[in-house]
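Weekly sync notes, structure subgroup
Attendees: PM, AL, DS (notes)

Item 1: joint prediction request from the bench team. They want all two components modeled as one assembly rather than separately. Inputs as received:
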Amino acid sequence: MQSLKIKNLECNRNGRSIFTGISFDVTPGRILLLSGKNGSGKTSLLRILAGLMPPKAGSIVWGDKKFTDKRDRELFSPLYIGHSNPVKLGLTVRENLIFWAKIFGHGLNVDAALEQFGIRNHSELPASYLSEGQKRRLTLARLALDQPVSTLPSLWLLDEPAWGLDPEAVKTLSNLAIDHVKNQGMVIISTHGNNLDELLALNSDRYSLTENNC
Amino acid sequence: MNRIGLLIIKDVKLALQGASDTGMTFVFLLLACTLFQFSIGPDQTLLIKVGGGVIWVVALLATILSLERLFITDFEDGTLEQYFLSPMSLVFFALAKAISHWLTTGLLVIISAPIIALLYSLPNEVFLPLFLSMVIGTPILSLIGTLGAALTLGAKRSGVLMPLIILPLYIPVLIFGTLVIYNVMYGHNYNSFLIVLIGLLLLSLALAPWATACALRQAIE
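Output from the run, pasted for the record:
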């Protein structure tokens, strides 16, 4: 099975080097845990992989396909969940999830997804009623929706997804990630070493953004 | 339903829920027109003369008022990133935003225009051409405004920068919009000016969403 190869990736922001020489492979069926200090470039790396910003140098290669900053979205459209929660406070919890499901072409198993993250009983409430942790659960509930069919194994890019979550939700998240890689998906998670790392230990590899990369 | 439709419905629904913003635009329109009246005085002939211009200037200002927050919330809560990653093109996203803006502001301006015309004692024959010029002109304001909002997204003084960028681009709409009204008032044919406005609408429809998408891509990166 072909892996996603990241070679000598470099990132500059506002004239400042964030990291250089990042190289690793992501194998379908495995989770990659990214670690590193604050400011080491974990978020920038995930944003580059998502296609949200171009790298200064280096390449992202899948098989014989090399992805530049202009991605072929039909082939390579990772599911990216960043720090913030794209939740519209004026819509209900259910409406929020249905909206994203339709925009991304996910399955509409919305109730089951909300149930998994323990917020189904809030589904008809405006999202403004949710706590920050519940908003995070709502954002992550997208992972529990049926994923659209893709030519390539589906890649999840999760930027500190467990932030603000209680242990029960972290367990749900880890189960989803493990199920995803069991179906030959790929997951890259940036983390600061918490309960999620322990739950994913058996299915994951690690890559640390150290000072050598800066 | 297609993705553009979904986006428009969502934005209009959110705008109507925050009815204070929409109401504020309406109040601003009436307040600004009243202020012009106070400053001009009770001279009815003068009011009729300046009425057409005042309606269009106030329409421009009301449009700008509602543009500042057009992309900010989506930018701050990560929604914009998700649109960027979605299968939907950013050009269609920009178009959807312009349509939502027109539905929540442009329509309000169109509805207010006859009321303002009454306040300025404009003759009855002005109403239909005024309505037509507004129907064609206000979408141009939304399309250009969306571009201005995208260009200044993330800028420190976007509230000051945006009017500086878009007001010069509004000048042709202002000129031809008011010309429609004055030509009716002086008994001339106004069709040619409406056609020019239609041309401007088609031009901005072709260019503004594309330019807005480029500006949004820059802001995300």
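Discussion: Chain B is about 85% helix and 0% strand.
Action: AL to compare against the crosslinking data before next sync.
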